[in-house]
Amino acid sequence: MNWKKGIPAVVIVLFVAALVPVVAFGTVTVHELVVLGTTDLHGYVMPYDYLTVKEVSDYGAAKTFTLIKWAREMYNNTILIDTGDAIQGSVLAEREARIDPIKMGDTPSIIKAMNIMDYDVVGIGNHEFNFGLEYLDLAIASADFPMISANLYNEDTKELRYDPYVILEREVDGIPIKIGVIAFLPPEIMMWDRVLLEGKVYAEPIVDAAAKYVPKLREEGVDLVIVSLHQGSSDAEAILENVEGIDAIIMGHSHGKIADKIDGVPVTMAGSWGNSLGLIHFHLLNIDGEWEVFSSCPQLWHVDEKVEAAPEIVEAVKEQHEATIDYVMAPVGTTAVPIKGYFSRVIDNEVTQLVNEAQLWYVKEYFKGTEYESMPLLSAAAPFRTNTSVDAGDVRIMNAADIYIYSNTLHVVKVNGLELKGWLEKSAENFNQIDPNSTEEQNLLARFSSYNFDVIEGIDYQIDVRNPVGQRIVNLTYEGEEVEDDMEFLVVTNNYRAGGGGYHLVDADIVLSSTVENRSVIIDYIIEKGTINPTPSFNWSIVPFESAGKITFSSSDEAATLPEELGIKGIKYIGDRLFEVDLIELAENVPQAVAN
User: Fold this and answer.
1) How many whole angstroms separate alpha carbon 470 and alpha carbon 424?
2) Which of 61, 68, 224, 490 is buried most, with the most CB atoms less than 10 Å from its CB?
3) Does an H or E element contain 540, and which?
């Protein structure tokens, strides 16, 4: 392919300028240095989705390396930095760490790839600790590059666990230059991975660590200071407000795509899973042997179908890649009941039941021994796909992608009774208002995204679709008692909802902001249980009433025989994707305590 077609015009201009890289003005010369940055690779070496068993076009470190090679061809002077979250995330990485674990002396596939990519330095992110300190030690031992962090200390010695920074002694157009790279990780790891880290290490606030170690870098006579920050723009702003002497920040953690300047300092965040490459172009003056930044320009390149996977990486991880495909195709547990999502917007369902059971299982264990252990714990889940279909019997890893299609991360929010009811009222907008006296056919379901129809487990409630929006939740109880406005609950959800997505929550009180994927929690739950039985609890239902006309809703023709097969009363197929619902008969599916 013609690789120039995939590169923005501004880069072609810079490439032409780079043909004459050094311009002499007496004792002053002008040079270009390009800092390449990646972040949040999360073990995604290959352009492949193991949960759908399909190749993809827009991510994978093997493709990112192709961009890196292009950049190295275009620019004479480059360094390559990653900001962390490299060793955990993909099924490939999970398998190597937990399912068929590699041993000390072996090399994780992502580290193999990064060795080939020839990184200069890698910051340590929060997910580096998900498999424990020993596995991180294994990864560090197998890396051909330093992995650093300036704000994590050993509990026993009170000394830094890792080197806080490195000084890269390089040349720019033949002239020596000293580049200091310092890294910071989220202090929240002490909550996120408390079980693995408590009593072994502790984290220092990022700004405090930056104020301590950036000046030390400057004292060592470096010409540039590059920060590898496994956090986003707000933390970058805080550092720059309090610490002088920083020339660039490569950010990560939140998986955003950013090429910008903060207080005049260039910053990049190159997405996640190897879907982007950050570039910070420094135009440097060398004045009588001293370096000075003349200007800088941040930029992003993106992986797409035109970018081919680097063959040397493909070959290096071929065995582990193929073994991972075999793994996701193999059963990891069984389900005693079929998991079908076709009617999940009308009646309590196995899909949301499974997600809620898994989320509650995870968080109950997580909060043991904490201040939150005794608080009422609920869980919210939505039917992301209303055509989810897993038959009774074997459950495969790939089925998790059918049940939970988004790469959300698990969050827990604290709400009071009033906020809880508001959350449910927003979900109840899933339904149209039904006039029971109308003889016209009425559609039960509104134009409403299924991923916003949260079902909350741990409480009992009913939805009265005869009422207008905002007045539909009735008979809301917790452990048999009416939910009062000032009662407090913890609700397990995802980052999208906790951040205000779907407008269910406003300025949520987030007590756990985890970076563990909800989908991974489901997989771990199935593996732990062996056999699951996500039979609906029917803790929610539609208030039954007689209607003068038909009430209908649309679903898939594939569900035509499901009411009979699953013994669901009150729903019948009437043709062309349309189902009729009898709300009184539907209530016969629901335990009497809830129906009343």
Assistant:
1) 9
2) 61
3) strand 540-542
One domain for residues 316 and 337: no
Residue 106 DSSP class = B
- What is the reported pLDDT for 12? 37
Query: For residues 300 and 279, is the Cβ–Cβ distance under 8 A?
Result: yes
508: CATH: 3.90.780.10
- Count of all residues that appear for the chain in the document: 596
380 and 310 fall within a common domain: no
Question: In one letter, which amino acid is 572?
Answer: K
Q: Encode pLDDT of 527-540 as tens digits.
A: 999 999 999 999 99
Q: Identify the three-state secondary structure at position 211.
A: helix
> Which strands sit side by side in the sheet containing 455-457, from one edge to the other?
455-457, 377-381, 488-494, 409-416, 509-517
Global pTM? 0.73
Residue 88 to residue 326: CA distance in whole angstroms: 19
Q: Is 50 part of any domain?
A: yes
340-390 pLDDT tens trace:
999 999 999 999 999 999 999 999 999 999 999 999 999 999 999 898 999
Q: Give the 3-state secondary structure of residue 200.
A: coil
Neighbouring C-beta atoms of residue 514, cutoff 10 Å: 23
DSSP 63-97: HHHHHHHHHHHH-SSEEEEE-S--SSSSHHHHIII
Q: Is 579 helix (H, G, I), strand (E, B) or coil?
A: strand
Q: 3-state DSSP call for residue 492?
A: strand
Same domain, 129 and 161: yes
From 501, 516, 536, give the residue that closes a domain.
Answer: 536
Residue 392 placed within a domain: yes
Q: Does residue 379 share a domain with residue 260?
A: no
Question: What CATH number does residue 50 fall under?
Answer: 3.60.21.10
CB 292 within 8 A of CB 28: no
Residue 45 sits in which domain range?
3-19+32-326
**Extended strands (E) in 124-203:** 147-148, 152-154, 165-172, 175-184, 201-203
| Whole-angstrom distance, CA of residue 174 vs CA of residue 172 | 5
Check whether residue 342 and residue 317 sit in a common domain: no
Q: How many domains does the chain have?
A: 2
